Amino acid sequence: MSFQPKNKIIIITAPSGAGKTSITHYLLKKFPQLAFSVSAATRPRRKHEVDGKDYYFLSQEDFDQKIKHNEFVEWEMVYEGKSYGTLKSELQRIWDNNQVPVLDIDVKGAIHVQGQYSGTVLSIFVEPPSVDELKRRLSSRGTETEESLQTRVNKASYEISFKHRFDKIILNDDLNKACKRAEEVITEFLNS
Ligand code: 5GP
Questions:
Q1: If you measure from the C-alpha of residue 152 to the centroid of ligand 1, how many angstroms do you get, rounded to a whole number?
Q2: SS3 for 142?
Q3: At residue 119, does pLDDT exceed 60?
Q4: How far apart are CA 13 and CA 26, in angstroms?
């Protein structure tokens, strides 16, 4: 049998606003073998987010306890004072369900996971057409303050410089095309 979900991991990484969440949603609908890896996060929950579905929203104290008990595969303070992390228990839960976890995580976290599970990971970097376009998308999303928008834009340029560290780079200048391209590379990975 060529499909062996155990230990396989798919990472979708990109600067914030590059479209990785839209691509991830598309893939999760397309492939029943995939399951979203719900990260732990200390940032406040946004209006439409659901605890346990979008993130496990934790207090800083609870997050620190999990670091102390070595419960994370990786974690990062992605933005000042806001930490995000992939829980070992979350990957195990998905593998136990005979599915492949899809991690929507930042570039540094993605590099860490790749290092720990080399050989069974497919990493995809979603590249925005430009930093200006990224800024426009983030503004129109309406979730950012002027300050957090600037933080995300500054971070994006830095993150784009790491794109060659990943297995596949998908340019998101057209969301449909980017989704189709992601579908192709994942089909190949699942059958490998
Ligand atoms: P947001 O606050 O917009 O939901 O996410 C901010 C950033 O944190 C995104 O780039 C997202 O991919 C990243 N992120 C979400 N979960 C994790 C995680 O578990 N680990 C790391 N390193 N980054 C994460």
A1: 12
A2: coil
A3: yes
A4: 15
d(CA 176, CA 95): 29
- Where residue 53 falls (left for φ over 0; alpha for ψ -120 to 50; beta otherwise) is alpha
SS3 6: coil
The residue whose CB lies within 8 Å of the most ligand 1 atoms, and thus the one to mutate among 74, 84, 94, 148, is 84
Taking the CA atoms of residue 128, residue 179, residue 101 and residue 90 in that order, the dihedral angle to the nearest 10 degrees is 60
Higher pLDDT, 149 or 42: 42
Domains of the chain in start order, with CATH, are 9-190 (3.40.50.300)
86 lines ligand 1 (CB under 6 A): yes
